[in-house]
Design brief:
Blueprint: H1 2-20, E1 25-28, E2 35-42, E3 45-61, E4 64-79, H2 85-95, E5 108-117, E6 120-127, E7 130-137, E8 139-143, E9 146-156, E10 178-189
Antiparallel strand pairs: 1-3, 2-3, 2-10, 3-4, 4-5, 5-6, 6-7, 8-9, 9-10
Length: 191
């Protein structure tokens, strides 16, 4: 009888424990509420614009992001600072060409979270089929199951074989040089 009582107590404890420990939950990223603003600089100025997020998910455990990913639609690149329509079209055509992001061959880029420690996010960023590990601080909030995260990410384009106008590869380029680093201001919001 003691054995049966012990087994029943153990089963009751296990059932209670399983109900009180929340499993990680996965939420899709809202492609409408999420955004990316890019900024790229050159010796003589800078350009800024937006690029869309086409898919993603965030994994949350105990009100903390523990994993996830998002996909960037490279065909959605928009330049916001060039007001002349013809020059704007030419500029976007150039940065989406083989000199830069080669979007016909690589229509998406992706970031996959590998680790979250406090507000530091680490993961793998894939651009043009090349994957590199990156890490950056983020502002993360989880309220009533809804997740929002904001981060400013600096990326060295030459890590992804984007060499056009880089002083690393063209010493005598002078004031036509384009800086290797560009930034992404990323806002992710779950549905």
């Amino acid at each position: 009888m003691k054995k049966v009582s012990f087994i029943l107590s153990a089963l009751a404890f296990m059932a209670f424990t399983n109900q009180t420990i929340a499993a990680p939950s996965t939420s899709p990223v809202s492609t409408k509420a999420s955004s990316i603003v890019w900024n790229a600089k050159k010796v003589t100025g800078e350009h800024t614009g937006t690029i869309g997020i086409s898919a993603g998910k965030l994994v949350v455990n105990k009100n903390q992001i523990t994993g996830g990913n998002f996909t960037i639609d490279m065909k959605s690149i928009v330049c916001k600072d060039i007001t002349d329509p013809e020059y704007n079209k030419k500029f976007v055509g150039h940065i989406t060409s083989g000199d830069f992001f080669e979007i016909e061959k690589f229509p998406t880029a992706q970031f996959v979270i590998s680790k979250v420690a406090g507000n530091q996010i680490s993961g793998n960023l894939t651009i043009k089929g090349i994957t590199k590990a990156i890490s950056f601080p983020a502002q993360i909030a989880v309220n009533n199951g809804k997740v929002s995260a904001k981060a400013n990410i600096t990326i060295d384009r030459t890590d992804y074989n984007i060499k056009y106008g880089s002083k690393k590869f063209f010493d005598s380029i002078g004031d036509k040089a384009i800086f290797d680093d560009f930034t992404l201001a990323v806002t992710l919001v779950s549905e």
